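Hey, why these numbers?
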Amino acid sequence: MSNHKKPASIRRIIAKEHGFGPAAMAMAISIAGSGNAYAQPGSEENNAVEKENGIELIEVYGQKNAPYKAIRSGDLRRAADLASSPQTMTILTQTQIADSGKSDLKEILAAQAGVTIGTGENGNAFGDRYIIRGHEARSDVFVDGVRDPGMTTRESFATEQIEITKGPSSTFAGRGSSGGAVNSISKQANPNQNFAILQGGAGTDNHHRMTLDVNKNLSEDFAFRANLLHAQEDVADRAPAEKERIGGLVSARFDATPRLSLLADYYHLEANDVPDLGSYFDQSTRAPVEDIGVYLQSGDFLDTEVNAFTLKATYELSDSVRLQNAIRYGTTDNAYVTTGARGSTRDASDPLAPNALTATLSTHQGWQEVEYIVNQLNIFWDLDQGDAAHKLVFGLEYSDEQVVNGFFATENTAPTNCVAQGRGGALASHCAIDAAGNWDPNVQNLLGRTVSRANQDSDFNVKTTSGYIMDTVELNDRWTVFLGARYDHFDYSNAVVGRGATEPSAYNYSDGFWNGHMGIVRNFGHSGNVYFTYSTATNINGGESDVGGSCGYGGLCGTPDQVDRSDPEHVENLELGTKWEFFNDRLLATAALFRMTKDDVMESVGDSYSTLGTLNTGKNRVQGVELSLTGAITDKLSAQFSAAFMESEVLDAFIEDNVGLALSNFADEHLYLQLRYDASPRFSFGGSISYKSEMYGGQPDTAAGYNATIGDYSIVVPSYEVVDLFMNFYPTEKVNLRLNVSNVADTEYWTAAYRSGSFMYLGEARSVRGSVTWEF
């Protein structure tokens, strides 16, 4: 460690950037008063990161003197520390997220090894779509261990840490979680702290971001915390595409008795975007179109509003038995109308440029209303039996999820400007590229689109009752065992209006399934171990709530009778790994070999948007190795490194030609490295590099599209690497200046492709952002 000593106030433990809304700022500042931030040394609730630099971040589950290293999960059901857990898990701390300069959850996850991004059904823009180890995870997102249903835009302003679990996790998660799950741990009120931190940022592309994080200890037994956010920016080099975020998380904790604690919070987020779907795949050049113009239409939008209320009660029945009950009620409203581009050719009958290459525009739209209630009861029992120490968890969970999806009626009222080739032959069209080969200067008003909200086309409801038991058993100094089993019973209903139909088809069925998880850890002293784990996951027919009867995208496959008779998809994972801690536990190194096999896969054999499909005919496998190095390498150098080298293969399929192909939206090679160097007590700098190998477009969880004529995959997303830089300067003990330069080389790259290639998401261009953080 450096010999420089700072005043105690500089070494206070304070919190990361957080929510700030202009209208609420005066109230929050008045609540904050003049309290100073502190944490009690050795408190289990505050494993503080003791750094030598200005304003600190509270890493509630973090390792001292290792700003990028978390000790354990925020989900108390995971009794073992991260270094002792028999499963691959990446935990991103507040400090790591802040240094990265990323704020939306999609951006944070997309950089990490083992995670890719998808586009969704028909350009479905309902929030964020994640793919973990090649398998859909868009419905496998949790907040504080409780499922967060619906497709929403997610922000990190109120997040303590982000946990990415790799491999099937149904013992914890219930249905789904084939490739893994994402769990965000919220910042909560804490009676051991008083602080107020304001952060303001500005940058290129009209970026501004303001956050406020206030924790006030109002008495020995009661604490209040407010996290507020307002942010707005143009999408880098893609204006008038833009993003706006308005959010808040307000929480209160009351220690009613020495044994009873109550925690309540309310979360609100509005995301108002003008979306840009990026480029498209040019079949003639076999590559995405580069330097594409901005073709979004005036009036395009992507809006999300999230509201969630959570009440959690924790009661200590005895020194060894604790009871915790969490109930959450939430709603989400999503709506979008976006524009895609597709390469086309003017017809020979076109009067201006016959047979010339051009691009035509398409409309993608939908709305969604989500309402849910979840109750999760856990009983924690620490039990010693002979030499064995058990950490038992007994759980009961009930959830009721209601998701109504619908569509917008749209009409293009502007006059057509070309005759282009289409599926039905020559069609009067709107061409975004004019007869001279240039983008139309009025392209953003080309369609003259009118929009009105229309009817619903699916009414999804699933009620699930679950019971589980988990046991982490420390047999002796050398051996630890984890055992878990879970049973889920669900009642499913959906009223789906298919394409061309006027009346809904009613689907109603019930079923139940078991999942299990077993891990064995062989410890080698205090610092290292080798483990083996086996885990399972289950996916039900029609389990994706956002796609109704689109069999090819996780919706219903088959007629109502066929769905009732179908078996769920089943996933098994085998993993052999090792974990080692170095330098007084400040650095964690992990390596894992894994093989995931998904069987009884339901396959679409229609147009992917209908219920026409086969039941339980598919099988695929993903296998590989994952490596990580996280924590402090020296007193000054910190790292968060993850790498994945994987391969995917379709083992069985209804269409025999798909056997042997890779899965869609799957990158064989991933690498992420973020380094931070504390050059002096007042200055630190660092950077990151993210690499993904090429991917292929196609339907989720199945073979990528393949063109037998050319002997290659139909849609190719090229490999890419992106470099970011950051710098921190601490002019005083209460002020922190940060500079982030994202995509330093201004690399043009693509992160995902729709199965037809009609749009390919663009990674964000170079941006420069500065921020000032002030403790007051």
Summary: The two ends are 28 Å apart (CA to CA). Residues 25-32 form the longest helix (8 residues).
